[in-house]
Specification:
227 residues; globular; alpha+beta; Fumarylacetoacetate hydrolase, domain 2
């Protein structure tokens, strides 16, 4: 095999609670998957076909620090369940989807809301608002053997001790098995893929110096400081 003409990019990994790391291949994010959040964003909460956007693997950041990004004055927090796959395929049946899950974690989908809004008005992709550096703070992943497959449980986020987001995983419009099955109809899923499963209502702006504490019952807690 020919030598690389540039240094090979580093494989991006997420730590796991039991030791070792989880290498990330792709990051899929579902939009408006909690009815109350759909309403607060100005959309109909009725169950419509799901839609996804993507972040980059190296956007996921376990450091506990979120650098306030450039070219924005309106950065929002979104707490989400992260689903980590150990295998994949095409056209995965819903009743077999959870067989492909390695584990779960707590994550944040940080969003340059002003830039995302501009892109929406222009009919352009959202990546400038979603896929910037370190836009996906994430905690250690926990294997299915420890946490099972959480389909209910409190999901919340507080900023400087003030409750902001509050919901339950059972409020997800599209459940984890359905997300995996739907994605596999359009993409070939594989080990290392992760899915960020949507956020409850209460998204709001953060400022430098703020401390965000995100938690999902039975999965874990994540503390991130805006720097």
């Amino acid at each position: 095999m020919a030598d690389h003409v540039i240094p090979a990019p580093q494989v991006h990994v997420i730590p796991t609670e039991g030791g070792g790391t989880f290498p990330v291949r792709r990051v899929y994010c579902i939009g408006r998957n909690f009815a109350a959040h759909a309403v607060e964003m100005g959309h109909d909460p009725d169950r419509e076909p799901p839609f996804f956007f993507q972040k980059n693997p190296n956007n996921l950041d376990p450091s506990g620090a979120f650098p306030y990004p450039p070219h924005t004055s309106d950065v929002h927090h979104e707490v989400e369940l992260l689903v980590a796959l150990k295998s994949g395929g095409r056209n995965i049946p819903v009743d077999q989807a959870l067989d492909h899950v390695w584990g779960y974690g707590v994550s944040l989908d940080m969003t340059r809301r002003d830039l995302q809004g501009q892109m929406k008005k222009m009919g352009r992709p959202w990546e400038i608002g979603k896929a910037f550096e370190r836009s996906g703070p994430v905690g250690p992943l926990r294997p299915v053997a420890d946490v099972g497959h959480p389909d209910h449980g409190h999901i919340a986020l507080a900023v400087n001790g003030e409750p902001r987001q509050d919901g339950d995983l059972n409020q997800m419009i599209w459940k984890v098995p359905e997300m995996i099955s739907y994605l596999s109809e359009y993409f070939e899923l594989a080990a290392g893929d992760v899915i960020m499963a949507g956020t409850p209502s209460g998204v709001n702006a953060v400022q430098r110096g703020d401390v965000m504490v995100a938690s999902i019952e039975g999965v874990g807690e994540l503390t991130v400081t805006v720097v």
